[in-house]
Amino acid sequence: MSTTDSNGGNGARDTSGRFQKGNAGGPGNPHVRRLAAHQAAVRDALRPDDLRAVLKKLHSLALEGDVAAARVLLERVVGKSRPEPEAPSSWTFDPEDIHTEAGRERAIKSLLGAVASGAVSASEAKALVGFIEVAGSVLTDELLANLGFRL
After folding, report:
1. 5 closest CA partner among 13, 14, 15
2. pLDDT of 62-82, one tens digit each?
């Protein structure tokens, strides 16, 4: 048993609903076809001399201080700028501090000071606080296990 759908007869399927061998895959996306046609029309309408004139005009406007023209020109020539990756933080702590609750509190307070001064980003601080808390709970669990308590 095969059926056809509204894809111009291209939708023949087998009894399990799968497309049959030789199916062309449908008509495609009409918006993409229309966009491709518009892009082709623009390419056909622009001569190389026209494009040079546009680029020269953008260049002169940019040199006159037109920020939008400078942005368009640079994005087309150099490429769009990407945000710089964050530099590694300069915050350090004594690993021995995570063995005690008071030490973990000292480490977290020190970390908050580093965030306030800009030495550590908020996202880094969040990850580090999570590490300090997990490391502290693991050590606590290990200590309890060593003392013979079941967890």
Report:
1. 13
2. 999 989 989 888 888 888 877
